[in-house]
Amino acid sequence: MSNHFSAANLKSPGGDPRLDFTDLFVFQSPSDQDKTVLISDYCPLRSDQLFNPDAVYRINIDNDGDAKADLAFNTVFSEPAGGVQAGTVYQVTGDQAREAIPAEETLIASVPVGLDAAAQPVEANGIKVFVGVRSDPFFADAEGAFHDFHWTGVDTFADKNVLTIALEVPSEMLGTDPRIGAWATVSKWQDGVLTQMDRGGHPTINPFINPDDKKDEYNARLPVDDVANYLEPWSKVLEDQGGYSLSDAKDALKEVLPDILRYDRSEPVSYPNGRYLTNDVYSHRFAWLSRGKIPPDGLQPHGDMLPEFPYLGVPNS
After folding, report:
1. Which segments of 146-237 are extended strands (E)?
2. What is the pLDDT of residues 81-134, one digit of tens each?
3. What are the pLDDT digits (tens) for 259-282?
4. Contact by Cβ (8 Å): 309, 130
């Protein structure tokens, strides 16, 4: 998995696949070098779900390197009616971006949730938005990982769908410095309180590195606290599983702690500098975890991706 099934016992957070964040992608727009694409995916292996109307789906941007949000894009959804649903994207900046319930500015309202190949993005004020079901771009031999990395050659996520929130925004909107950090969160209103249910920036971290009794706690925390909370226990994981020395393990963990996907748009995108849809992050993570002892799983990117926004393939039947 990337971040699929990130709760304890490889379940979805809160037992709700709609709250299950799976992947984050950040890259330069192939059609406009002055724009950045931000894609977050949810609801793994399911084709029969819409977004949770009680949830807030957020992409957080840190543009000064302090592991705190300076800008965020919040997306909320209407109650489904007759299989129809719409989403509204809000922007929040500055100190308000660090508030659970901030004052927000509407960017684009009432975007129809796309359910089939005919769904189209919405564009306004130089920003493109797509929300809906798409083909899952993540490719990985999950079965092999659970059997001592004896790769099976089978892509667990081929022909699977996810719920996608895709944005294409002017890069200057993210900050004047070309270096940013991004992470996704999903929160849910429960008894009048907005509770964070899932989060992540880097692929294949929480499901494989944290033990079951730590996964839910991890999902509820913030990246600014990650080094203090996870540098020591995760160093032990790299020592035990990868044969790292303690100092080398701590150096290796600089890639993923805090759990924020760093992207310098002045450099070519290739994970861990941002993440493009075709980057083989699964093989990268296990090579990183084992210090090169685990070979790539040999799988190729999915062939259904599109050359234009929202770039992910149309839903699989």
Report:
1. 161-170, 179-190, 193-200
2. 999 999 999 999 999 999 878 788 999 999 999 999 999 999 998 999 999 999
3. 999 999 999 999 999 999 999 999
4. yes
Q: How far apart (Å, rounded) are the C-alpha atoms in residues 211 and 238?
A: 14
Phi first, then psi: what are they for 183, rounded to 5°? -150, 155
Query: For the residues 200-228, what does the mean pLDDT come to?
Result: 97
The CB-side HSE value for 234 (13 A sphere, CA atoms) comes to: 26
How far apart (Å, rounded) are the C-alpha atoms in residues 22 and 137?
10
Element (H, E) at 40: strand 35-42
DSSP code of residue 84: B
Model-level pTM? 0.97
- Interior angle at CA 173, CA 172 and CA 174, nearest 5: 90
Structure tokens given for 241: 């599983």
28 alpha-carbon distance from chain centroid: 16
Cis? peptide before 301, omega within 30° of 0: no
Name the pairing type of β-strands 193-200 and 86-93.
Answer: unpaired
CA distance 199 to 225: 13
Q: Residue for token digits 């493109």?
A: 128
Nearest-angstrom CA–CA distance, 120 and 112? 9
